[in-house]
Specification:
Length: 741
């Protein structure tokens, strides 16, 4: 009988009307799904799904694909009902009187704010310097607005067509300071609020009840970002916190649990996450319905804003600091910790592990049993043994002091390679460095990565579209003769680094490689025969949205600094000259965006951080679904391969070879000091597939120029013919022997 019912259901679905093309797309986007996500689930091509959503001439699905597609759209329509246009017969109520949203944003907010839950980033905004425009009235029951004389007001950012979310009308964050005995909250856009709170618990209460801080969710099934308060030294003193941490507190990363402020929070039933009260503290209560119950604190004087990534942001006046963090928040997301932590949180915010559904019997909201399509889910998965770093529990049975070689361990890292200069290169005058913009972000763009656990396969047939780790011998690949496009070309292989190892050495036997590395060997014209592999059949372009968000943030901020994406080569070089001095605050944002990329990818393979860990034991990061060394390896592999492909194209066309490579920087000998003196531009057009000057991720900029004489003198001084000059090409400073660190 059940088979008969199934047949009836399929018959009904095969003839039922589907929503319009516009509605199909709205539902997909609302749930944070890409075209590839839907195509993969239904077993069709990406172009097919795109055609189903075409507003010009949509095609209709057929057969079992139609049934599955109709089921998908029906479930999404239940989660995201079409908005009903509001009609008014009188004057609209003021923002303070309007009810809180009860749509999907509120539904997803039922998740409790704990250490292991993830908070999404703000909704996408158009490229602009900072916060959203403010309503004409900013009256609040117990807070008044004011302006600090001389404060720099950031230009407003564009907002969605339906206007700003009234819950977050004052922006994502505020810098809390004390001036002339008054506590002030400096928000984005130049807004300043009076803060009536006398204690830290009451400050948290005020933030949640009256401050109207936070940001809308970034993806359909996600949750709004919690408000962020940045406490200046004066604010720390006012609320009973130390201005600086002691040496013991720095080591612990927190103040003691017995501190009077922590006790105040406990007495008022506020909780801290497992990390305690540190530079990035999260203070919360379990959520009640759709009511947000979490505030994050950032304390710059406790080194929350690491100078390596945030420059001198911690020393900025409150209004200027609010501007810097506000621009970053509006374009990336509200900071959740270090730039590395935020980079990882952005991945999760764009692909939340679960989503809220309404129970058919009770009508109550609960979390779905299955994971959000395209996400990594909420449960961690073990990596393959070859992907495990030393000390991982998967390796605990190895004999002590075992040294794992290439045939035991996946080692995909960025380039650190150099060679002696040839006699011909020594006759040239200059060494010119090129730097690839946002190289690792570009490496993530369009990359297919595993979403689930690995499967072990013996003697597999290599599939360049299947993410995984492959044990294969690539020692037969000869760089003296390779395919460039469809043609074989002859090169001087001795002047080129191997694309298969970070040090540029030619492999000597079987080794573990990520999919992009093995695929490149095929691209160069050589057969590959893997011995075994760990592959991930559940896969997708997980990092596409992450890349797009960070790319847009980078390009928008560089445009604000006068460097546009469509400049001619000479104009681009001129625009880059001195761009950091045009607006030092926005330069800080650029630095933070770059650090978010590299740090976020690094967190995918985070190592133990103290905590009494011993080899063979699990460490905290392993409990995250985002602990994925295979994804990190794939991005680094693709980034290295992208650079090598450009180098080969350049060598085949010009006969020029690199002197040194360090990560995303490559150095060439040149007759002139400018990149235009050796890059083969013709009528303003670059070599196809080679180096192209520009600000977009994957294009290159001028890193620095030194003389050939400088390079030879440095290498002679340290008696190191292969010292990596790319490490110091920017400013020419070499302080010690190059040991690769």
């Amino acid at each position: 009988m059940s088979e008969m019912f199934d047949a009836v259901d399929a018959l009904v679905a095969s003839r039922s009307a589907l929503p319009s093309a516009e509605e199909r797309k709205r539902l997909r986007v609302a749930h944070g799904l890409t075209l590839d996500d839907v195509a993969g689930a239904l077993g069709v091509r990406r172009a097919t799904v795109s055609a189903w959503e075409s507003t010009k001439k949509p095609t209709e699905p057929r057969g079992p694909e139609r049934e599955a597609y109709a089921r998908l759209l029906k479930q999404l329509a239940e989660l995201y009902p079409a908005p009903v246009p509001a009609t008014f017969t009188g004057t609209p109520a003021p923002a303070e009187a309007r009810p809180m949203s009860t749509g999907p944003a509120s539904e997803a907010a039922v998740m409790t704010a704990t250490e292991n839950t993830q908070t999404p980033a703000p909704a996408p905004v158009a490229a602009a310097p900072a916060a959203a425009p403010r309503p004409a009235s900013t009256t609040r029951p117990t807070s008044s607005t004011s302006r600090r004389p001389g404060a720099k007001k950031a230009a407003p950012a564009a907002t969605p067509a339906d206007g700003a979310d009234p819950r977050f009308e004052n922006g994502p964050l505020a810098v809390v300071d004390v001036e002339d005995g008054k506590v002030l909250a400096y928000c984005t856009g130049g807004l300043v609020l009076d803060v009536p709170a006398k204690s830290l618990p009451s400050l948290v209460e005020w933030t949640l009840r009256e401050a109207k801080l936070g940001q809308p969710k970034l993806s359909g099934p996600g949750r709004p970002a919690d408000p962020l308060l940045v406490l200046t030294e004066a604010a720390c003193e006012r609320y009973g916190l130390p201005v600086a941490l002691t040496a013991e507190e720095k080591d612990a990363g927190r103040i003691p649990e017995g501190h009077k402020v922590v006790k105040q929070l406990v007495r008022t039933e506020w909780k801290l996450t497992k990390r305690g009260f540190g530079p990035w503290a999260r203070i919360y209560r379990p959520a009640k319905g759709s009511e947000r119950q979490c505030v994050q604190l950032c304390i710059p004087s406790w080194n929350a804003l690491d100078a390596r990534f945030w420059g001198d942001a911690a020393q900025l006046p409150p209004a200027e600091l609010a501007r810097v963090l506000g621009v970053y928040a509006s374009r990336v997301m509200t900071p959740r910790g270090s730039t590395a932590v935020t980079g990882l949180e952005l991945m999760t915010a764009l692909h939340p592990p679960t989503y809220a559904v309404r129970d058919e019997e009770t009508g109550a909201l609960r979390q779905a049993d299955d994971k959000t399509p395209g996400s990594l889910g909420k449960d961690p998965v073990d990596c393959a043994p070859c992907e495990a770093p030393d000390g991982h529990p998967l390796l605990k049975d190895l004999p002590r002091f075992t040294v794992r070689g290439p045939a035991d361990k996946l080692f995909e890292e960025a380039y650190d390679w150099a060679r002696p200069m040839t006699d011909a290169e020594c006759t040239l005058r200059y060494l010119v460095g090129l730097d690839v913009n946002m190289a690792f972000a570009a490496g993530a763009n369009g990359l297919n990565v595993g979403l689930g656990e690995p499967t072990h396969v013996k003697t597999p047939v290599f599939d360049p579209k299947l993410p995984g780790s492959w044990l294969v011998d690539l020692s037969h690949v000869d760089l003296s003769k390779v395919k460039v496009g469809k043609e074989w070309v002859e090169l001087d292989g001795s002047l080129l680094p191997s694309p298969f190892t970070p040090k540029g050495d030619r492999p000597t036997g079987p080794a573990w490689y990520a999919t992009p590395t093995v695929a490149y060997a095929q691209e160069l014209g050589y057969d590959v025969a893997p011995v075994e592999a760990w592959v991930r059949y559940e896969n997708g372009r997980y990092l596409d949205g992450w890349y797009g968000r960070l790319r847009d943030a980078y390009l928008a901020t560089m445009a604000d600094l006068g460097v546009d994406a469509d400049l001619a080569p000479a104009d681009f070089l001129a625009a880059m000259d001195g761009y950091k001095e045009r607006d030092p605050e926005l330069t800080i944002v650029v630095s933070a965006i770059k650090a978010t990329v590299k740090g976020g990818l690094g967190k995918l393979r985070e190592r133990p951080r103290g905590e009494g860990w011993r080899p063979g034991e699990r460490w905290r990061a392993l409990e995250r679904p985002t602990w994925r060394p295979d994804i990190r390896a794939a991005v680094i592999s693709r980034t290295r391969i992208n650079l090598h492909r450009k180098i080969v194209k350049h060598a085949a066309f010009t006969g020029q070879y690199p002197i040194a490579i360090l990560s995303d920087c490559v150095v060439y000998a040149s007759s002139g000091p400018s990149p235009l003196d050796f890059l083969p531009y013709r009528e303003g057009k670059p070599l196809p597939g080679g180096f192209k000057l520009g600000i977009n991720p994957g294009l290159v900029k001028h890193e620095g120029t030194q003389t050939v004489l400088w390079g030879e003198e440095v290498r002679d001084k340290f008696n190191a013919p292969e010292l990596n000059l790319a490490r110091s090409i920017k400013d020419g400073t070499v302080t010690d022997t190059d040991n690769g660190e």
